[in-house]
Amino acid sequence: MQRFVVGRVSQEKHFLQWRRSLSQLVQNKAPLQENDLLLPKMPPFDYSPPPYNGPSAADILQKRKQYLSPSIFCFYNQPVNIVDGKMQYLFDEKGRRYLDAFGGIATVNCGHCHPDVVDVIVKQINRLQHSTVLYLNHAIADFAEALASKMPGDLKVVFFTNSGTEANELAMMMARLYTGCNDIISLRNAYHGNAAGTMGATAQRVWKFNVVQTGVHHAINPDPYRGMFGSDGEKYARDVQDLIDFGTSGHVAGFISEAIQGVGGIVELAPGYLPAVYSSIKKAGGLFIADEVQSGFARTGSHFWGFESQGVVPDIVTMAKGIGNGIPLGAVVTTPEIAEVLTHRNYFNTFGGNPVCTTAGHAVLKVIEKEKLQENAYVVGSYLKERLLSLKDKYEIIGDVRGRGLMLGVEVVTDRKLKTPANVEILHIMDQMKEMGVLVGKGGFYGNVFRITPPLCFTKEDADFFVDVMDYAMSKM
């Protein structure tokens, strides 16, 4: 049994309450039968994993309880033991195939164990696993050049990190150093990481500990579904100007935001919001930090970077997750002028720019281009969204379908008018979908949003199977 609620003193109490609620919900529900002719059929796939002879799920779970932090939790009533992966599919210890609609939290953009990415990793690790950026190696320079070519404007200087949290920490520090100001404006419902500075920028209580967090102001979230101004981005943007006028000296270090809030429940910012906010921030002398950790690298389909959908060019862009297809890698990209602030003292990252990681990152860019994954994310994502919208017409439990490309969210509610979160029901649906071979994420402030962020090689057949499985699970509620 795993803890489901994290970051609160009453973790175990909430978890037991959830288990009791879930048990009551599934009482008298007929179990799924594999021979049920009505069950959706998974698309064929020409791959069989080698036999697995390792520890069982029960053994691993016991060892996790004994040796890993109790803050680590699992999805599902019976956690799945994933031992193999190929493209958009994962396999458990018994060789059962699952359609991966979560992509390792919007990370495995090219597909699990993509041969082009694996090949360059193996070749590089056989030649040189690690040296240091204090020596020359072509891998880091080649990837930085390729990454800069994907950026607009004068964004062409790269600093490599190991994660999105590190990237956002560095970006916020650079903004403060460059402007000489401390105040940073973030959004409510945002998630930017779990270190000292990024936890301050994060604005959901479940991800924040009671430690000192200063210098960050949280603006009203431009949420088209739950927000007070609907889809009017300019009205939300006025709150940023108010924060500058009444909460700061009139000068700020910067503004940080995701184009689509991932952990926050796939919330796409209201149209016109970022241009209006950028105008206010620029007048206050601040920099614009675009957090592309989840929405970057072609995931939104319509653009390579999420911020491009709002027609803005940031001063600093942070990225991770999809950058390495699962390899620990992150980056901060900025202008030459802003990058100079790091030369005022020594700033160093032992593993940032590691040759294996940067070789993998370069391969990811090549695969995205060669296999037209951005186009696929747009075509398949648009098709999937339309199918989900048709499901919304069928089931009252679906309150909203949102997002773009292959970064989609389905918010479930028990009352559409009141938008009451269906945070117990979503767990039951997830478990039922897992039993039918689909793995999907969840998030949002209330924990009631399906996060659909599959590998970008997802097909229309996969989309059909996903929606059919969700349809079947909801029909049995």
Give the key terms.
477 residues; alpha/beta; seven-stranded mixed beta sheet
What's the story with the biggest beta sheet? 7 strands, mixed
Average of per-residue pLDDT values: 93
What percentage of the residues does DSSP assign to strands (E)? 15-25%
Alpha-carbon distance between the two ends: 24 Å
Helix fraction, binned, reads 25-40%
Instruction: Supply the number of helical segments.
Output: 14
- How does the overall form come out from the CA principal axes? globular
According to DSSP, the number of beta strands is 18
Task: Tell me the Rg in angstroms.
Answer: 22 Å
Strand order of the largest sheet: 4-12-11-10-7-5-6
Structural class designation: alpha/beta
Parts with pLDDT < 50 across at least 5 consecutive residues: 1-30
Model description:
It is a single chain. This protein is of the alpha/beta class and 477 residues long. The protein contains 14 helices and 18 strands. The protein has helices at 11-26, 57-67, 103-106, 115-127, 138-148, 164-179, 196-201, 233-247, 273-283, 336-339, 355-370, 373-394, 425-435, 460-475, and strands at residues 82-86, 89-92, 97-100, 157-161, 184-187, 216-219, 254-258, 260-261, 267-268, 287-291, 316-319, 330-334, 398-404, 407-415, 420-421, 438-439, 441-443, 449-452. Strands 4-12-11-10-7-5-6 form a 7-stranded mixed β-sheet, sandwiched between helices. Strands 13, 14, 15, 17 and 18 form a 5-stranded antiparallel β-sheet that branches. A 4-stranded mixed β-sheet has the order 1-2-3-16. Strand 2 (89-92) and strand 3 form a beta hairpin. Helix 5 (138-148) packs parallel to helix 11 and helix 13 (425-435) crosses helix 14 (460-475). The longest helix has 22 residues, at 373-394. The radius of gyration is 22 Å and the shape is globular. It starts with 10 loop residues before the first helix and ends with a helix. Mean pLDDT is 93; it is low at 1-30.
